[in-house]
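Following the same procedure, sequence and fold were stored together, as reproduced here:

>
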Amino acid sequence: MYIDFESLGKRIAQRRMALGYKQNELAEMADLSNNYLSNIENGHSIPSLTTFANLCLKLETTPDMFLLGTIKTNDIPQSIIDNLKLCNDKSLSLISDIIQCVLNQQK
């Protein structure tokens, strides 16, 4: 399997920003140097498996999202998946915020 580390880094950066973290905040949370995280996000460094797993945990997402740009969707109705694919970045950010709000209400 070919891994596009530049795309992986971009997805990590996008998720970080979607959660409202600055790069230095995530680096501290993940116990990484800011330069190393920057290199990962720019596709210049390949994270170790441990670092990758830790970033998935800290960014509350699954490895397949970073590796493939998709999430495991076995339990999500296809109509929702299809509609999400039609959304622009601004709409996806709003949807993400709504989902986070709903999840916070469940706690």
Summary: The mean pLDDT is 88. The chain has seven helices and no strands. Residues 7 and 67 are 8 Å apart (CA to CA).
